[in-house]
Amino acid sequence: MKNIDYQLRQFVEIARHKSLSDAAIALNVTQSALSKQLREIELAVGHRVFHRHGRGIKLTSQGAMLWHAVQAAFQFVDATIHQLNTPRATTAGTVTVATLHGCTQLVANGLFASILGRRPDINLTMMEGTAKDVCRFVEAGIADVGFVDRRSTIPHTLEISVAHASIVGRPCRQLVAVIRRAACEL
């Protein structure tokens, strides 16, 4: 087969329309050209893929197997192409997260599980310190966001509380907003 993608997409259209003439109209090709492509597909797979009858065509069992595989593959390919062509949100970049000593792994695992695994365009840098250090890192811009326990003394200008921890961060940072949303899922 010369262009397998093109021929298999034609095969899918034929199966969808259940008619060579209707599929030819939808594909803007002649019925004889489409019939020739269908013969090439059948030669390539080694089986007839359609039963032809007076009222149209019907998939054979081999044709149905091919149709299911091709549909799944094309859905994946089409979705990937759409994703590649869709402009990304402006949350790409590096986020520096400060945590209490010994909490880095827990916070990093939670962030990866909730968003970073789905957003490869975000790089994560972790740092540790005392609660006072974490607040100082965020205030000085060394860290974008910090995680401390509820008992910590946090400047009221930095605190964003969640159910089981306090998150500290400077306002108006898109990357920090992504991390804050993820932290609420932790």
Automatic annotation (TrEMBL):
GO terms for cellular component: cytosol. GO terms for molecular function: DNA-binding transcription factor activity. PANTHER family: HTH-TYPE TRANSCRIPTIONAL REGULATOR YBHD, NITROGEN ASSIMILATION TRANSCRIPTIONAL ACTIVATOR-RELATED. InterPro entries: HTH-type_LysR_regulators, LysR_HTH_N, WH-like_DNA-bd_sf, WH_DNA-bd_sf. Residues 4-60 form the HTH lysR-type domain. It comes from Paraburkholderia rhizosphaerae. This is Regulatory helix-turn-helix LysR family protein. It holds the Pfam family HTH_1.
